[in-house]
Amino acid sequence: MWGLGYRLISDDIDGTFWASFDPSSRKDRLYSAFVQDETILVRDRLALTLGSKFEHNNYTGFEIQPSGRLLWTPGERYSAWASISRAVKTPARVDHDGTVSYSAAIPPSTPEPTQAEPPAPASRLSPTGDTHQPEW
User: Terminus-to-terminus CA distance in the chain, angstroms?
Assistant: First the structure.
């Protein structure tokens, strides 16, 4: 069994104060293909399926996602299987180009936190022990 896929995603997103995209418009293409084959190891009892998906996207490039599955059928009404595979999450545009702005404010009715000692002034100590103020 085999298959092919293609996806074109085109957008133009106006940013807001809270969220923006850079660039604001973009076209993304996703190409994919898969192959899979089942081999009977023991007739009516044991089957092995091997396959892989191959994908190319604009963010991570070429990805291979192999898989294997073993199916055991000990009786007519029962079966058990085990599988192993590699899966890849295709990044979304927001993962790559999105920016979210946020801020935190202390409401006026909330008392400010106290400190054990005041913050140190903006200065530095030289190896000789002299204090130098920064030259802004």
Answer: 70
